[in-house]
Amino acid sequence: xxxxxxxxxxxxxxxxxxxxxxxxxxxxxxxxxxxxxxxxxxxxxxxxxxxxxxxxxxxxxxxxxxxxxxxxxxxxxxxxxxxxxxxxxxxxxxxxxxxxxxxxxxxxxxxxxxxxxxxxxxxxxxxxxxxxxxxxxxxxxxxxxxxxxxxxxxxxxxxxxxxxxxxxxxxxxxxxxxxxxxxxxxxxxxxxxxxxxxxxxxxxxxxxxxxxxxxxxxxxxxxxxxxxxxxxxxxxxxxxxxxx
Length: 244
Fold this sequence. Notes:
Blueprint: E1 7-13, E2 16-20, H1 23-31, E3 36-37, H2 38-45, H3 49-61, E4 65-69, E5 77-81, E6 84-90, H4 108-125, E7 128-129, H5 131-146, H6 154-167, E8 173-177, E9 182-186, H7 204-218, E10 222-228, E11 237-243
Antiparallel strand pairs: 1-2, 1-6, 3-5, 4-5, 6-7, 8-9, 9-11, 10-11
Helix pairs in contact: 5-7
């Protein structure tokens, strides 16, 4: 059976969809999640400058990365990712826990919920994860939902989100606010698909949904990170939300 640890990144560029299947290129792209100089990439990868230069030029030719002058050291270039990251492909399909079949899918809510579960499960079984796309869809949905909610104070906003999740059968939320961040726990997330071989989160749509709702209410960009997921045998799906 093929090793499941290796995976390829998928990007959309002006040249179309590009799948990066080189380990060193993948390592470079992981480094370039933060703008970096070529010398920093050489140091982190342990590869020669000539090897890194070849890969950087190839990634630029593909339209995945670009560079700009360093703001302090004008002799150096700062490389960054300009393509849009949309997912990953594993070497083979992932083994998942079979979702529970609903007794009745004739009502619209259950029908579309079952369709979404089957869609995500099918992608995973083919070894394909498209979390950035699911998150983007969730963010757009969150913003559309917000415009239909009657919201006043922050406490009323939190309560309305909890009611929304219950009404739409998305789970049961507990929302806590501290000085640094907002913590959202979903104790009965209905999006989770348990992957049996590797610990990965599968709640990208919910992550986006919360992002869209929160950004509309607070009127600024936020960073949201899922630190626990029931897909990984955690007790709840936990999201940390902070101002960007």
